[in-house]
Automatic annotation (TrEMBL):
This is PTS system transporter subunit IIA. The keyword NAD does not apply. Pfam families: EIIA-man. GO terms for biological process: phosphoenolpyruvate-dependent sugar phosphotransferase system. One of its GO terms (cellular component) is cytoplasm. The gene is manX_4. It is found in: Cytoplasm. InterPro entries: Bacterial_PTS_sugar_comp (IPR051471), PTS_EIIA_man-typ (IPR004701), PTS_EIIA_man-typ_sf (IPR036662), PTS_IIA_man (IPR033887). The keyword Membrane does not apply. It comes from Escherichia coli. Its main location: cytoplasm.
Amino acid sequence: MLGWVITCHDDRAQEILDALEKKHGALLQCRAVNFWRGLSSNMLSRMMCDALHEADSGEGVIFLTDIAGAPPYRVASLLSHKHSRCEVISGVTLPLIEQMMACRETMTSSEFRERIVELGAPEVSSLWHQQQKIRLSSSNIICMSINPRF
């Protein structure tokens, strides 16, 4: 089963987890990390690293974040580079996460990434999708510098 680390601003991550558990019972391999104003990046990193290890069974972990580019997303991105089968998703909402509940047990982390982005687009994206946009943009710039008529 894929582990989840829900990480959002203020108390939103815990509120999402509480709402899910109220409806579905205790969720295994699922942790919430709240990012409060004034929390240092170092402390956020420690909290998210602990949550990552608690949620990981070896099948993969999905970071579910509220805002792309914000501190929880950035820390999740850094942690994901050190962990295989780890995905970072931004723009998540409670209804979308709830839709994806059953997928934790049947999908790989990359399949989960594709499905949640498909369901939540255009508001939802992933670190992987953002990296693909950068690679494509870089490739176009290189092609244009080699052949200006491209």
